[in-house]
Each structure stands twice: as structure tokens, then as C-alpha cells.
Amino acid sequence: MKRLNNTIKIYLGIISLSLTTYACAPEIDSFESSAGSDVDFTKYIAVGNSLTAGFADRGLYLEGQQVAFPNLIAEQLKNVGGGTFNTPFFSEEQRNGSGYLQLKSLTDGQPVMEQVTSNLAYREAGKLTKYTGKIHNYGVPGMRVDLAYIPQFGALNMYFERLLPEAEVGTKSYFDFVTTRSHTFFSFWLGNNDVLGYAMNGAYENPEDATTTFTSVTNFTNGYGNFINTLTTNGQKGVVATIPDVSTIPFFTTVTTARLQAGVEASTGGAFDEIYISTASGVRIATAEDLFTLSFPTDTLGKTSNGILAYGLIPQNPLHDRFVIDKDEVAEIAGRVNAFNTVIKQVAASKKLAIADAHAYLNKVKTTGISYNGINVNAAFIQGNAFSLDGIHLTPLGNALMANLFIDAINLQYNARIPKVDATKYRGVKYP
Amino acid sequence: MHMKKLLLSLLLASPTLLFAQGSQVNTQSLKAVGMAGAGSALFVDEASIFYSPGALAKMDGNAISIGASAIMYRSAFREYNSTEIHETKFKITPPFSVFATLGPKNSWWKAGIGVYTPFGGSVDWGTDWPGKYELNHLQMRAIYIQPTLSFKITENFGIGGGFVYNVGLVDLSRSIPVTMADGSSGQANLSGTGTGMGYNLGVHYHLEDNVSLSLSYRSKVVTKLKDGDADFSVPPSLAASFPNTTFNAELPLPASFNFGISFPASSKVDIAADATFIGYDIYKSLDFDYADNTPVLQDTHQEKKYENAFSGKVGVNYKTCEMLTLRAGVGYVYTPVRGPYVSPETPDNNRMMASAGFTYLLSDKWDLTAAYVLQKVQARTVTNKASGLSGTYKTNIHAPGISLTYKW
Q1: How many CB atoms lie within 10 A of CB A418?
Q2: ipTM of the modeled complex
């Protein structure tokens, strides 16, 4: 009987031992990260425009800054020797920064937006609270390759002004501001606004506004090449990104000619069903190949303007050039984007930099869409998950996918193994 | 003795005979669990209702047994190119079984009823993992109710069969990629019950030198879920697109064919082996048919394309004395799930099993049986065809159990 008890004790022992192991989930081989060859991620800086800054929903605000793709990259770089990464965050108190758009309701399926006006970061009209701490994310909304060399731009752009010490406002160029930071690695994504500023203004250069200039290929080549040369002076490595085609973003693909026609036909009881636009080659009826901007005030259609009736509905009163990029302008802009991207790829190849091909990636998002872990990501406005409410900038999910595009490029170029971002942690557009 | 050697060498040489059981965790008889699932030919008792209905008529008296197990199923996942490892929450699934027999002593027939849970499980990945748009949690259980009749054709040969009525319960949730005002994802919750019917048949044969053979067949049971509840947590502005509605679905539970053999290795030691073929290829897809459809809420069709599965198990039964019997076993199960269809519901792969157990005679009326089986599902790196989720799964299953039998 004693032997029996002992046997039972042994069995109970085995069972309780296994009960204690229940909590231990199975062990999976861990990911072996590697910095690859010849790269030093110790001090990573991000050079770029609104996309680099984390601008979204037509504003720069804390939540967007926190999920800016360079910040997500920097977090992953910590696995391969990356150091701290400082961002000119707005304070918690001023978390809504410049203010931004949010979705108020969906009325008959149409989005109704409202501007967030609380907890803003303005110290006076048009001027944001200064940031004085260390910076690694140098993203400045509105920055361009051409304007990066203009010291006066610091006084005109409130996002750049915010970063500059008072004495350097209007006297220090963005180029000088960011190329003196003893970085070891960089990401560089400029050039978008060199075409986008022009395109967003309906492919209309406003002589009063330098941000609507259509940068020439020569100016771009010189400005871009010089910037990269300077950033790689000490042999630093980095990643650059190509410029997406403007027709991939919902800002230009949501208000379509067909939608406008349908709206006009419905509201005029069928009296009008065409939209007239003014182009370089004269006034004509808009076709599906002409792109209207998301900012086009559709309620002005058919109203009296300049004393003439039926704005946009009759050839005598066509829409202003600045609300539409007609098909010739679309082709002109696409050609310029391609020329810029050729320059970017050449410069990157000559310096052995990684290339994140955002142009190809966003084309894919637009044409076939992307399926990511059960999420359909495409370029549709609001529902597409990739673009925020301004139709230009990325959602947090879009930023996470962009970070992965950059990480893939770095891994490929430098034979590194930087772990990827889990993009399912990041949201699309918030619905009310 | 010559016969035994022949059979043993046959078993070792021919792996197809060793395959048994499916990817389900079978815990109907804790005696069999102690032998990693083998023993359909060896044990002639009330649990034969499930394992070998042909053996039931060979029982001398009658018995009722109640058993329960605690299946602790733990999976881990690491997304491809990620450092983060995600684990399912600790959940215990308690399958139970009740078997009772009825009939005259030492007669040519025996009747019995079994209530047991051959399929079921609970897996909870939570709402914060890369596969959340595939699955948050799944709870599934099939309860089989099986009245059975068994007859002795000769002293050595028994035949039996039963009718199976199944009640199935399913409860699952998954995240929906729409963002609520607080930044979290929406969620779909589906739950329902369904019923199905099937049968089982079996023969059991004793050779002269105590070698026993068992053949049994369990039919497929197609469980139809009708008017299950589909609830959606989505932002109020999207509520019209995701109306709370009902759904119909069909879950085919596979047929299986089992061959078991047992023989004494000495006066105190018996060896048993079972091979099972499971007709999982009827599980082609999982379809949800919603009563209300909207442009974003469409009926879903998930391909499963399961293959037939095999398993093999070998166990040892050692009577240390009149009162205590010890058991141990090992087994191997081939998965029915193909790589591109591996999903968080069943991150399956081939698995190895090892078990131990005992039966202790409390009195001449009462038996206490306990067993423990560990199943290690091998690591599997897959890319799901539907979602694109890519990574490595690994699963351990611990299942201790206990049962009590009263005999008269």
C-alpha cells in the first residue's frame, strides 16, 4: 500500500509539474536582427516635408507626429543600434497643434468635416509655440527642394519658424539648419511639394506665392544633388524616397467629373449636365481625365460669378483654372515627377543609398490596392484606410506601411535585418 | 507468441497502420488518454460506446462513468520579420464524457448511451495582435449524444452501432478594419448553435491468444447553424452598413475510420495500437450567410480545403497489482490543414503526443482513472492565402483529466 501511495504521489507530481508549465506558451525562435554592413544607425535624422513631420488631416498635431513614419522607423532601428530619436512634439496641453480636420458625420454617405479648435499651439496668429529641445525628426510641412535653400522661408513657414531660434528666423535656410547635425544615418524625402504645390493650385503658378512654383528639372537636380552630397559628406548612409504621382492621392481623385455632372444634373433638374473648364488651350467640357481638387467648393457651381450666371455650367463662365488640373496638366505633372524620380534614383545609386519607391508603392495602392493582414488598403477617400481626411497625407496605418517600405529598402540595400512595424496597431480614418 | 511477434513487426514496419485519430483532442476515455489515444481493441468497458461499439456486448456487467478533462491550449505566433511574439490567452476547455450501459449480465447484447465532446476548443488571441482582422477569439464545442446497441455474434466476435445526435455551439469574434472615435477597431461577434446527425459502427474480435482487434467507423456529422447572432461594434455613423443580423453556416465534422489492435506482452503488460483515418477533406470552406447584406457586409466565403488526416498511437497498459494499473503512450498526428489555409482558429501542424495515466480500484464497485497527455504541435511558418498574414505558429496542448466509474 505504501508503494502504491508513492506511485500515486509520483503521478500527482507529474501532473502538477505539467500544470505549472501550462502558463508557458510554446517557445518560438526569436527574430535575429542585424544592422547589416557598413551602416551606423546611432544618430538617425529625418529630412523632409509634411509626410516626414507626421502632418495629417490638414494639420500638424501630436497624434500624427507620434506615428510619423520616421518615428516608427526610429523605433525599429533601436533593435540595430539606433539611439534616441527626438521629435518636435507639441506639448500635451497644446496637442492639437495647428488644428486639424475631423469627421463630424456621414450625411447620406457624404462626409461632413469640422475643424478641431481646442488645445491649439498658436502663440499668436499664424505663429506656433516654439520648440527648443533636441531634434531628430526635421520634417517641415511645406518644405520643398527649391525653398530649402531660401533663408527667408523660415519667416514665411510657421512650421519651420517654430523650430528656429529667434535670431535665425529668416536668416537660416532649411538646408543649413539640417546639414550640420553630425548624423550617422538619414532619411530624405523632399520634392513632393515641388510638384504638389503647383498641382494643388490647379496647375496654376501664383506669382505671389512661391509654394505654387512648378520647380524646373534643372533646379531640382541641382538642389537635390547638393543636399544629398552634403548629407553624405562623411560617408553617411541613408534612405531616400521617390515622389508619388499626384493622381494617386484622393485629393485629386475624389471629386470626379462624373460626380460633378451627376450633382449638377440632379440639382438643375436635368437643365445642365456638363462642366466647363478653362484650360491653356481654351474653354472646353470637362472629361474623366481632368482632375478636380478635393478643395473645390462644389456649392459655387451654377451660382452667379463676376456678374455671369451658371458658374461652370456654360462655356461663357467656365471654372477657374486653379480648381482643375486638366488632362494636359496631369500629363505635364506626371512627366515632371518621372524626371525628378530619375534624378533621385541616380543620386541614390551614386551614393549607394537605399531607395524607398513610394511612387511605385502608391501606384499599387491606387490601382490594385493592398491587402495587409486582412485589411484592404487603397486610395479611396476615407474608406481606403491609407489617406487621412485631407486626401493627401497618410493615416497612422498609411504611415506604418510607409515605414515598412523604407525598412524594406534599407534591409535590401545594406543587407540589414531591421524588424518590420506591425501596421495592424495603427488606425485608418476615425469615424464618428 | 509467433502471432504477437508478427503483429508487432507489422506495426513497426508499416507506418500507415500507426496513423490514428485526427487533429481533435480525444478525451472520451481517460484510460485511452493514458495511452495517447490507443486502446480501442484493449478496453472492453462503457467507453467502448465511443471507441469500439462492437466491444460493448462483451462487457460482463454494467457501468456508468463520468469523466472530465482540462484542455489547456496555448499557441504562440511571431509575424515574419517581427520581434514580437503573441500568445493566446490561457484558457481551459473542459470536455466531458458520460457513458452508461444497460443490459443483462453475461448476455449476447448490451445497450448504452454516451454523451461526449469529440470536437471543441477555445482560442483567444485578443484584439491586439497582427491577425486580429482574422480572429480575436473562437470557442467551439460539439456535443455528441449517442445511444448504442451491441451484440455478441460469437463468444469472440461483437458488433455494434449507434446513432449520433450533435449539438454544436460556436462563438467567435474578429476585428473589423474601421476605426472608432477612440482609435480602436470595430468588431464582429458571431455566435450560434446548430445540430447534426450521424452514426457509428464497429466490430471487435478476440483471437485465441488474447490478441484483440477493433474496427470502427464514425460517420461525418454536418452541423447546420441556423439564425445565429451576428453583432457588430462599429462607429455609430457606420451602423447602417453593419446591421446586427443573423447568419446561417454549416460546419462539417469529419468521418473517421479506426483500426485498433492489442496483445499481451506478458501476464501484466498489454500493448495496444490504433490507427485512424479522418475524412477531413469534407471541410472545404467556412461560409457565413448573413440575413441582411449591405455593400460592406457581404456573405463570407473562407476556403479551408482540408486534407484527410491520419494518426497513429501506441500505448502500454501495466497492471502493477490488482488495484493499480499504469499506462503510457505516444502518438503522432498528421495535420489536415494545408499551409496557405493555416489560420489562427487552428494553427495546426503535425503533432506529437505523449501520455501517462493510471486506474486505481477504490473498491470492487468504484474505479478512479486519471491521465495526462501533452501534445506538441510543431512550429509552422505560413502565409495565409486570404489575409496575407505571414509568420510562425507553435502550439502546446496539455490535457489532464480524471474519471470515475461505478460498476454493477
Answers
A1: 26
A2: 0.88
